[in-house]
Design goal:
The chain is α+β, with helices and mostly antiparallel strands. Helix content is about 55%, strand content about 10%. The protein is built from 14 helices and 7 strands. Helix 11 runs parallel beside helix 13. The longest helix has about 35 residues, at about 315-350.
């Protein structure tokens, strides 16, 4: 499950034209399957113009005009949210129909308003559900019709905390059974920790008794050393510029043109010459955006920090960095191949052929996946390195554990589930 958002200030150059195109895009023109309103040719629904329960928007043209008016005439700041579930999560949690998504948004918009300092009585919003083979997602546009907040920009750390809180609120509604069993699952994780990293956590089972908030946060860091699933995932700013998207698109198309037409499209099986070009494309994609680039170098640094536990000479650290880079290139390369194949498959479908948004959406999806994966990997490695530095293990035990940790591959989280 992913939730992200950005904002569109009224003074943003070209915003009116952007909205004229973007609202119809999410309502009916996306290459994804849009869940349409009954007896209508678009799928926009929401709460606008003094409605307080979600309902189908009757006129897409009037709604688009109203949203533009709120932005350009009333100077309201528009927020663009995006909530996504993987195909497995859609099936397992019963989100295969739009009614369930409408119920989710109706229940959670009060939390969205709270996180963005909007009084619930002043909140207006529209949404549309897009269904794809590998995931489904809702685009969400919302605003304060009274415009109480003039400047939504907040420090990055505070923004990350708000997004983490909102993701948690959505998750509690989407995965009620999992949250009901949360403590049992944590007990299982504690047992796994005891088995896998016993030297770190002597008498681990007693830690929960009378635990303070500070002790609990310390325990979370210990958990994140075990698996990316327990790591604090840094919020990735979903904003990506046109030029960045254009570069990522260019690289996907470049790889699409040279990949084998038959055989397995797996990194380890493609010809060496293609693999070299794929590595170049992967690095270009990573460096096209600051979020990806920052997470990439954080991962390389964290790999070297683990190596320093038993060998801190320059040659060994260079080797650790090279190994980490190889892991990244293999993981990202497979995702680029998957994006190229998805784009190829779309172009074969008559209703999607030659659609200008095909490449853009494939590029944006790829960017989000890479940024989150690298962030999770770096956070996970940092937690491991921290535990190694501060543990009371013998030097030999630290060396053995560090070598085991170096063998860990990258985790794509929800994108593999």
């Amino acid at each position: 499950m992913v939730y992200n958002q950005k904002y569109l200030p009224p003074r943003k150059p070209g915003l009116q034209k952007y909205l004229q195109n973007y609202v119809p895009y999410i309502a009916k023109q996306s290459q994804s399957h849009v869940a349409l309103n009954e007896s209508q040719n678009h799928g926009l629904f929401g709460c606008i113009q003094n409605t307080y329960l979600p309902k189908d928007i009757e006129s897409l043209r009037d709604a688009t005009k109203y949203i533009i008016g709120k932005s350009q005439d009333d100077k309201c700041i528009l927020y663009h949210g995006f909530i996504s579930l993987s195909a497995g999560e859609v099936i397992q949690q019963g989100y295969a129909n739009r009614q369930k998504w409408e119920q989710l948004l109706a229940a959670k918009m009060s939390d969205v308003a709270k996180a963005n300092h909007i009084k619930i009585e002043n909140l207006e919003w529209v949404s549309a559900l897009h269904v794809k083979k590998d995931h489904s997602h809702c685009h969400l546009i919302f605003w304060d019709k009274r415009q109480g907040i003039k400047e939504p920009h907040i420090p990055k750390q505070a923004f990350e905390q708000k997004m983490e809180w909102l993701r948690g609120r959505f998750a509690r509604s989407i995965f009620p059974e999992q949250f009901k069993e949360l403590y049992q699952q944590k007990d299982g994780a504690f047992e796994t920790l005891r088995d896998a990293m016993h030297p770190f956590f002597d008498e681990f089972g007693t830690l929960m008794d009378g635990m303070t908030e500070g002790e609990y946060m310390a325990l979370k860091k210990q958990l994140s050393a075990l698996s990316p699933d327990y790591a604090d995932e840094k919020m990735i700013n979903p904003k990506i510029s046109y030029d960045q998207l254009k570069e990522i698109t260019r690289q996907i198309i470049r790889i699409r043109e040279i990949i084998p037409k038959t055989g397995s499209l797996k990194y380890q099986y493609i010809p060496q010459g293609v693999k070299e070009k794929l590595d170049e494309a992967s690095l270009q994609i990573i460096h096209a955006n600051a979020a990806c680039r920052s997470a990439y170098y954080a991962y390389l640094r964290s790999a070297k920090d683990i190596r320093k536990v038993y060998a801190d000479n320059p040659e060994s650290l260079e080797e650790a960095e090279a190994q980490a880079r190889s892991v990244i290139l293999k993981s990202v390369g497979n995702k680029v191949l998957q994006a190229a194949k998805t784009l190829d498959d779309l172009e074969r479908e008559p209703e999607h052929k030659n659609q200008p948004n095909n490449e853009r959406e494939a590029a944006h999806d790829l960017f989000m996946q890479i940024a989150f994966m690298l962030s999770r990997g770096a956070q996970n490695n940092n937690a491991r390195a921290s535990r190694l530095r501060t543990s009371e293990l013998s030097r030999q035990a630290k060396i053995e554990l560090a070598k085991k940790l170096e063998d860990k591959s990258l985790d794509w989280g929800q994108y593999e589930r």
